């Protein structure tokens, strides 16, 4: 039994109640069922500071499509959700909120700050989860995890201790990326290199031994305060006699050596480079090779410290200006030179990064990276698109040690404890109160926290219970696919791979699907500054979730950016209306009946549509397996809109309206069967409308979500009928095109003459005459082997091995058409004259903006083209009188 549908589809009335029913009946839950194969996706955990944007919407729609498909295919499909504590971003928001109360972290202390942080998380942390539910995400919400919850925190401590005991985590003084705004270290992957306008400053240092000068170039004059050497290339003959001599750094009055190092590019600038080991990564390496002092001249907030002498306390950029002025006064300034160069900025706050010497915690990466490289090269790890493999390998094969400590309070606190008496460091999962070396009770825990990505790297297995051997871990690990943005391949993807190889002994997933960015209609990245951002919730409110999901997936492909058009959302809404109306038509004709299949009464049209949906099931399944989701949804769309609604429903209407037609019940069964199959194939992409229609058209199953996924069925493979109906459709399309060009209304019938030397093709047209008559607006049909009776003035539709002819006089009343076209010609002549006159008016041309002039020229071209076409038609009609 089916139920009656409302006249119009109202997504807002359907979506909320439908999602609530899904949750109530726990359709999203995945069990460790030994009778089923597992299929697992772990969500890329969104930050608790986040609000749903179109990138989230695309990423999570893709995951939902994959998980819903596998669920229908009979897998125990787990989509594990969760959120990330986002240490830097979250702490910044809390600190800003405190500032409004006149408070700082230091004033309230760590314990009170953490209370505020957890309260903030409880208040705002669930926002994006609620929004993901609005998107229709079918996550197993009972398994939701948070990177700072107890289980995941235990996993983080376990990993830290194991790596430390293995010698892969160490504490040392190295050059790191420092953010003066957030006052913390950050990883290389968190640095954005932006092309900015800058300046090269040309200075000179006096050579102590000779009184001569060495010219050099720098973009950061403030670092002169920390110079400990001047370097030249050992093969540069210009300076070979100066190696081993010294120069004096003015302002700080420091004498530093002139050294030779192959790092120096002879062709760049003067071939002379100042060396500041404490504030430049390349200079740091030079300093290590030559055992140079490392002088840190910067405070944590980006001001100059005591090593900067009289510049102490000045902001680094203010000091830059003052130092340039002092060099000018000393006669040591040469010139400035504008330059465009890449400047490292913190991707969180856009502050210019300061390379700085700091004592931090690091992970040795060389050993950890090797398995991640070999697993990819062996083909066990597949990246979609394949081109991402080059980026993956380049980063791993050129990897540097990972700085994992952050000078923050919100996050996983480093499990290291320091003895105030003997200086011993004890690393432990549990608190160390007594020094294991000297028995002192003066122990304190490291105040820093771990990089957010350290915990996120464990996400595929920590969320399933590791280090405990849980049933979930045993059954659902490894996961199957990761869906993520290509911009975090370094942050997260690679770190998950090497962490899983180290602690699980296998890959965390076999496939990685990289999404592209969602851009605006002009191809620009969406941003607050441009004001071109689009709130997905606004789209859902106005068009419905299904329309948003469709517009994001249609045309998308792995790794490629996409443009978001509102017109695509509107097209998707039109599609939902088309589908809704088709279902209403079917339900109205079925009524309270229960149509049954009588195979002996299947017509060629029935077999054609059954065969088409049968083949569609295989194609869509193959596309989804290959992550060609854009292709899959477009095929389903084309089938429903074109084949099913525009063709098959129109083909069967005469049978449905004829009470004496014994095949009407079979037509109804076919309509219902094909609709249900199409709804199932569409469901992963557009879950809400498909659920509503599925429950309306049948009563045997309680949800489409758990209904079996369509499979290719040999019983419904009718290639002969597919070919036959395809031929008839081509004929009808040709007939309709000619009639449209001539503006012939459907009510005006025309006789059709079908000519083919092929007896088989003639038999097809004889068999399908009824469809040609109905959909080709035919008053009669003659099928013949030759062109006897066919005149030259007939319109022709040329097909492979056949042609369809229509008498001209059946379609056109020549006198009336000449009269209509003459009036149209007169109108167009006037329009052309008006535009020509306007463009000839110098008063208009001299004052009008160019855009307006171009518009008028475009109108002239358009009207002249239309006039030429009308005159051509008039000439043709006149010759037929």
What is the 3D form? globular
Strand count, sense and closure of the main sheet?
7 strands, mixed
Mean pLDDT over all positions? 93
Cα-atom radius of gyration: 37 Å
Q: Span between N and C termini?
A: 61 Å
Query: Poorly predicted ranges (pLDDT <50, ≥5 residues)?
Result: none
Share of residues in helices: 40-55%
* Total beta-strand segments: 29
Estimated structural class? alpha/beta
The fraction of residues in strands falls at 15-25%
Number of continuous helical runs: 28
Short description:
By secondary structure, this protein is of the alpha/beta class. The protein is 45% helix and 17% strand. Strands 7, 8, 9, 10, 11, 12 and 13 form a 7-stranded mixed beta sheet that branches. A 4-stranded antiparallel beta sheet has the order 6-5-14-16.
Describe this structure as you would to a colleague.
The protein is an alpha/beta fold. The protein is built from 28 helices and 29 strands. A hairpin with a 4-residue loop joins strand 5 and strand 6 (184-186). Helix 17 packs parallel to helix 19 (629-657). The protein is globular and about 110 Å long. It starts with 10 loop residues before the first helix and ends with a helix. The relative contact order is 0.09. The mean pLDDT is 93.
